[in-house]
């Protein structure tokens, strides 16, 4: 086991000394080669949890072990086990990606030749070699983000923590980045992916937890989490306009509107009724079209956290 988080609670003092439970009795474990997703709304407590894992914030109570080392008792040793790509953009200034990544490799005490070889591999794999010697101030947001990613994996620890690593990154290079991460996990490295991007998490992680107001609402593989809303289907319709559907049938369990898209969940035994109803709405010109499919992780995320947001 790489990481063992035991009953972590972190309380901050807010205005007028009110207690903010940023993390509230959280426990979980991560094994070698696993990709663990940490998802949650803004302010759910993800960064606070990561900061305690790398030893930069002390828990109010509970313990964290990295490769059996207690993070609070041996923070330096524990920190050597982790590599982190933080959410905020790197202020590279006049540093080029090649300078930033090789400096990080040397700081992590990797052999000079190994650093050069691995840097070439990473730049090729991400197809960013053409910017290797461009000053940071001239780089796009996506290339800066990928440079930060390379810095975190140039000499990776046994646990790599990536906070929104694909923000600003184009779809092709997102794929390349995930290929590199998969290769890392084959070599035994474990990964924590902190993200708001549910679709990406669904494809990429082995297990995930949804954090809400400091607590884990649910934890498991994407399919285990999807089965927590067992036997449900999603009916998505494109409305003609936002008022084109007034009355919804009683078999709809949940609904969520995104612009002119209405996403509804229903029990699988309501499928025949739903097809009949949706086809009628198309005929009556209330909706443009509809799609019926099994529930996605995004639906589960919305359902579990809906009405519970800040
Ligand atoms: N140093 C601090 N002092 C007081 N409150 C804090 C402190 N750091 C975090 N908090 C509070 O703890 C809660 C969790 O914050 P945290 O930054 O861990 O959330 P998050 O899930 O990482 O959010 P985001 O997705 O926006 O980065 C929030 O209510 C936040 O305001």
Strand content: 25-35%
CATH superfamily of the largest domain: P-loop containing nucleotide triphosphate hydrolases
Order of helices and strands: EEEHEEHEHHHEHEHEEHEEEHEH
What is the count of helical runs? 10
Amino-to-carboxy terminus distance: 35 Å
**Would you tell me the overall average pLDDT?**
91
Spatial strand sequence of the major β-sheet: 6-7-8-3-9-10
SSE class? alpha/beta
Tell me about the biggest sheet? 6 strands, mixed
Overall, the morphology is: globular
Write down how many β-strands occur, each being a DSSP E stretch of 2 or more residues: 14
CATH architecture descriptor name of the largest domain: 3-Layer(aba) Sandwich
Topology:
Layout: E1 3-13, E2 19-30, E3 35-39, H1 46-53, E4 61-66, E5 69-70, H2 75-81, E6 82-85, H3 97-107, H4 112-126, H5 141-153, E7 159-163, H6 171-186, E8 190-195, H7 198-204, E9 207-212, E10 215-220, H8 222-226, E11 232-239, E12 252-258, E13 261-267, H9 271-283, E14 287-294, H10 297-305
Parallel strand pairs: 3-8, 3-9, 6-7, 7-8
Antiparallel strand pairs: 1-2, 1-4, 4-5, 9-10, 11-13, 11-14, 12-13
Helix pairs in contact: 3-4, 3-5
Bound molecules: adenosine-5'-triphosphate.
The site of adenosine-5'-triphosphate has 12 residues, from strand 2 and helix 1.
